[in-house]
Design goal:
Blueprint (H helix, E strand, L loop, with lengths): L2 E13 L10 E10 L5 H4 L8 H14 L1 E2 L2 H16 L3 E9 L7 E9 L4
Length: about 120
């Protein structure tokens, strides 16, 4: 399996359990691994044969600017489903970190993996 990765993608979004925490956008950090639908781009050297990671980042920024989430788990699930549905990846792994939110804790977050369901 060929995987595209995006490391330490900083995104502004509204996230938190208390209502006041979602009033102002805050930074979350994403580490994303996206399985390519095929390895064709390795031989064709053509962008149309792969997942355009610039488009992926732009789409993630767009969706997270439009929505708010209470839980990092829900944010991560939303992004996994977006990548599976819109970019046709067969598998995705996302790590969402919320830095500096608790005293004495560098970051908190989740890591989830999802695969496309075939019927």
């Amino acid at each position: 399996m060929d995987i595209i990765f995006l490391s330490e993608v900083k995104i502004q979004t509204r996230l938190g359990v208390p209502d006041w925490e979602r009033l102002v956008p805050q930074t979350v950090i994403l580490d994303i691994e996206i399985a390519m639908p095929s390895s064709e781009s390795c031989t064709t050297d053509a962008i149309q044969d792969t997942i355009d990671y610039g488009t992926v980042v732009a789409r993630i920024r767009e969706t997270l600017s439009e929505q708010s989430f209470k839980l990092v788990e829900a944010l991560a699930e939303h992004l996994c489903q977006l990548l599976i549905q819109e970019f046709k990846t067969p598998w995705v792994k996302i790590r969402v970190s919320k830095p500096g939110i608790l005293p004495g804790v560098k970051a908190l977050g989740v890591v989830i993996e999802r695969g496309r369901k075939f019927s």
